[in-house]
Amino acid sequence: MQSSSIDIAVTPATKPGLRLLLLPLVILAGMGLSVEAGLLGPLGVQVGHLWATLSIFGVGSAILFFLLLLSGPQKGPAFSDLPRWQLIGGFLGPIYVVVLTLATPYIGIAMTMIAILSGQVGKSVLIDHFGWFGATRKKVNGERWLALLLIVAALVLIARG
Amino acid sequence: MMNLIILLAVVVAAGAVLSVQAAINGRLGETVGVLRSSLLTFVVGAVSTGLLILFFEPAHAVSLLDVPKWQLSGALFGVVYMMVMVGAVPRVGTAVATVAVIVGQLGMGMLIDNFGWLGNPQIELSGSRILAMVLLGLALVFMYRSNTRQA
């Protein structure tokens, strides 16, 4: 259910040799996300969108539970010590997965991914520009508006087929 | 046509929701670790989906137990993606990792569509689909450039 985040930030990188080795691995991981979406669409058609979504979250929970069990004691505060709003991310995940199972049979995997990306870019540009959800309002430069425009153009192309 | 536009709008909205989730979970992951924050996300997702099914889902002729088992392997790819990103992002940098993921996602997406793999409807690679990819690539270049300038 994960997807790449489009809020690109620049972080320091390590040795070029290691980078080249890791890059194919990251590309493969990205390919896996499309395979996941490709499995979800037909599954949703057969057993229902919510059941397909439950299979993702159910199996994912089980795997993560075992990983956590085997990885020993964890650092950091207990969930009960954290602000409530930080814990609500889980409610948003199912929305994304249900939409994925709904959309892929009609518009295909690649185009679903483009639409998801445009939502991510659009959200970051609009939230920054208008200061929604309590974000600090900052001027969005021309390049980001241009990026948003290009993505909308890509979506129009898809819609026209 | 009209339905397609509505569907696209819904998917775009889901992308926006996803990035809100990423923002919330990013903060959580920093304090409690990626494994714990992911487990919380998946458990809350499973429980809320389960409740929705109990109260709203009509009965289906085919259940999850009837489909071939490989169709249930989707979650594995999500978890592997998460592990790879945790290991790779600090070493290759966020920008490079993001672009690499998108390249893999769209490339594989086009392959699945074009050949109709995994039981998906076959959608041939048309000129306008390729053009859409090119526009998206350009958009990412502009996003990247504007972010490096701000940093």
Could you name the ranges of chain B where pLDDT drops below 50 across 5 or more consecutive residues? none
The succession of helices and strands of chain A, N to C, reads HHHHH
**Biggest interface and its residues per chain?**
A-B, 118 and 121 residues
Helical amount of chain B: over 70%
Poorly predicted regions of chain A: none
Number of domains of chain A: 2
The separation of the N and C termini of chain A measures 27 Å
| Distance linking N and C termini of chain B | 42 Å
Q: Give the class of chain A from helix and strand content and strand pairing.
A: mainly alpha
Number of strands of chain A: 0
The figure for the number of domains of chain B is 2
Number of E strands of chain B: 0
- The average pLDDT value of chain B, as a whole number, equals 85
Described by strand count, sense and barrel closure, the largest sheet of chain A is:
none
Radius of gyration of chain A: 19 Å
Fraction of residues of chain A in helices?
over 70%
What's the number of helices of chain B?
5
Please count the helical segments of chain A. 5
Query: Average pLDDT of chain A, to the nearest integer?
Result: 82
Topology order of chain B in helix (H) and strand (E) letters: HHHHH
Structure characterization notes:
The complex is a heterodimer of chains A (161) and B (151). With 161 residues, chain A is an all-alpha fold. Chain A has 5 helices and no strands. Chain A folds into 2 domains: 15-73 and 90-106, no CATH class; 108-161. The longest helix of chain A is centred in the first third of the chain and has 32 residues, at 16-47. The model of chain A has no long low-confidence stretch (mean pLDDT 82). With 151 residues, chain B is mainly α. Chain B has 2 domains: 1-58; 63-151, no CATH class. Chain B contains 5 helices and no strands. The longest helix of chain B has 31 residues, at 2-32. Chain B starts with a helix and ends with a helix. Chains A and B meet through helix 1, helix 2, helix 3, helix 4 and helix 5 of A and helix 1, helix 2, helix 3, helix 4 and helix 5 of B.
